[in-house]
Amino acid sequence: EPEVTQTPSHQVTQMGQEVILRCVPISNHLYFYWYRQILGQKVEFLVSFYNNEISEKSEIFDDQFSVERPDGSNFTLKIRSTKLEDSAMYFCASSRQKNTEAFFGQGTRLTVV
Amino acid sequence: AQSVTQLGSHVSVSEGALVLLRCNYSSSVPPYLFWYVQYPNQGLQLLLKYTSAATLVKGINGFEAEFKKSETSFHLTKPSAHMSDAAEYFCAVSDLGNQGGKLIFGQGTELSVKP
User: Environment class of residue B45 by beta-carbon count within 10 Å: exposed (0-12), middle (13-18) or buried (19+)?
Assistant: First the structure.
């Protein structure tokens, strides 16, 4: 069964460093998303991506964040200069169409020290 | 603006008992509603979805949910809890007003199942 895969599963980085979180969405899906979940809190939307551009982003997704689909299969989230409060589980998701179910990856746990 | 409220951050039931997890939504247009389950250290797995067809929706693992427009609710039920149902459950809403089809999640309900 097709699935969304994310790498790495866990990343530890020093404050101020850049990190890139990687995702391979399901191959015939057209919509891609990043969400995050701070420990003990709810899942929050960060950004949606369609047709090679951002279709919507949340207030959390400030200038420190960027997304890219560099090669037609990978979908990446870059955080330019990490802060302690960026520590969270980051989930990538994809869906075939808008408003259909999204399929989630296993997540990347980012720890900023 | 859309929102989701899950009543009860933690629900505990005995094995074999009815499971009822509550979800109320707010949406200015007809919503699409979803329940996801998250097992420890795993991602989110879709349990079931409502997309304007039948109001009673059946999902995986014996779960079902009923869309009630008058009550703006989409409660999740299972007639008989199993130990393996212990997990975190998230209700989510989306609608055609979203530019990119994002999901808005509730706070989550942790389900514990006692033997």
Answer: middle
Closest alpha carbon within chain B to A39 = B41
Count A/B contacts: CB-CB distance under 8 Å.
74
Residues composing chain A: 113
Strands B56-58, B19-21: pairing kind? unpaired
Interatomic CA distance for residues A60 and B3, integer angstroms: 17
Contact B32 A95 (CB under 8 A): no
Q: Tens digit of pLDDT for each residue in B72-98?
A: 999 999 999 999 999 999 999 986 666
SS percent in chain B: helix, strand, coil, step 5:
10, 50, 40
- Chain B: give the shortest CA distance to residue A26, in Å: 14
> Which candidate in A43, A60, A90 is best for mutational testing of the B interface (most B CBs within 10 A)?
A43
3 state DSSP class of A84: helix
Provide the residue count of chain B.
115
